[in-house]
Design brief:
Length: about 325
């Protein structure tokens, strides 16, 4: 009753920020993302009748802080399998140190794929994606590769809040350059931040009302492989989300000076030098530049030259979460 799975993080171009149901973890806004090909999370799950509690190790060390969320997600799979067996979970993030990439997305995606196989459930991708969403909203998208859409849905039970693949990585092979501007842990996590924005930002209603239109336009841009349209929509969604964050009380200001300098540099690269590149920023100070593979080395060099940029990483688009062979260590 053991299996190993691998998943990669994804980066939202149309952002999810806010929940319409906290218990089922249903998003208030639909989102659109790209799945990366690196870095990866590998997770081994083994159900063992002799265990009294779930045991979680992250990069070889026990991780009690994350255990409750992981156990709650595994409970959903245990219910379906009709078992109460506890599990040993060994997960490794092959992430450059605290690069500010969403490890919860790849983490919960790998967890549900491994647990499904270990329990012999054979659930389909959509169901696995829904289960991953219960762990972390963005994780629903890492079940799929390339360009992925996640609808907010309207139903109370969340059966229409579904992620679906929009376009394969190979069909529009973009690159992502990540400028790391701080290695410190963020002070306010996404879940807490979203709830604060929902309760206190005067812009929150406008944010949720405009999300479906942004998502529909971004889907069209992806289908048409229209880089300029996707660039405009992505930067708009990013800055609109940060306007909601910054107008929350107390404010959520995830940027530092280098974050702003990177955004300005990326705009100048596009508008003055004609480089096909745009930025997006999540609940942290790192800047993700999305560009063509040809432009990636020039974008990386331009961002690395900025004061305050501590590290620059590059990735291509990748596949969704998948099972690994027994021989492949987590
Ligand atoms: C800013 O998926 O981490 O990265 O559902 O509470 O786990 P929870 O939130 P999470 O939020 C991601 C927020 C974001 C935007 C995005 O990825 O869409």
């Amino acid at each position: 009753m053991a299996a190993i799975a691998q998943a990669q993080p994804n980066i939202a171009l149309v952002k999810y920020w806010g929940k319409r149901d906290a218990t089922l973890n249903l998003p208030a806004t639909g989102s659109l993302s790209i799945t990366l090909d690196a870095p990866w999370t590998r997770t081994r799950v083994e159900f063992d009748a002799s265990l009294r509690h779930d045991e979680l190790r992250l990069n070889g060390a026990e991780d009690p802080a994350a255990l409750a969320r992981v156990s709650a997600c595994l409970d959903l799979l245990r219910q379906r399998a009709g078992t109460a067996r506890r599990a040993r979970i060994d997960t490794r993030n092959h992430f450059p140190t605290a690069a500010g990439l969403a490890s919860s997305a790849s983490g919960f995606a790998a967890l549900v794929v491994a647990a499904d196989a270990a329990l012999g459930l054979g659930l389909d991708r959509r169901t696995l994606s829904m289960l991953a969403r219960r762990g972390s909203g963005s994780a629903a998208r890492s079940l799929f590769g390339g360009f992925v859409g996640l609808d907010a849905g309207e139903r109370d039970d969340g059966t229409d809040a579904i992620a679906q693949p929009l376009l394969d990585a190979a069909a529009w092979p973009l690159a992502v350059v990540i400028a790391v501007t701080s290695h410190r842990r963020k002070r306010v996590g996404s879940g807490v931040g979203m709830e604060r924005s929902r309760r206190t930002s005067p812009f929150y209603p406008a944010w949720t009302h405009s999300a479906a239109t942004d998502l529909a336009a971004a889907r069209r841009a992806v289908q048409a492989r229209d880089f300029a349209a996707l660039a405009e929509l992505s930067e708009h969604s990013c800055l609109k989300m940060h306007a909601v964050m910054q107008s929350s009380r107390p404010p959520l200001l995830y940027w530092n000076g280098a974050t702003v300098d990177c955004m300005q540099r990326i705009r100048a690269l596009r508008e003055d030098a004609g480089e096909p590149v745009f930025f997006t920023v999540d609940a942290g100070p790192q800047v993700k530049a999305v560009c063509t593979p040809e432009a990636a080395p020039r974008v990386a060099a331009a961002l690395a030259a900025l004061p305050g940029v501590e590290q620059v990483l590059s990735s291509r688009l990748g596949e969704g979460a998948r099972l690994l062979d027994d021989g492949e260590t987590p």
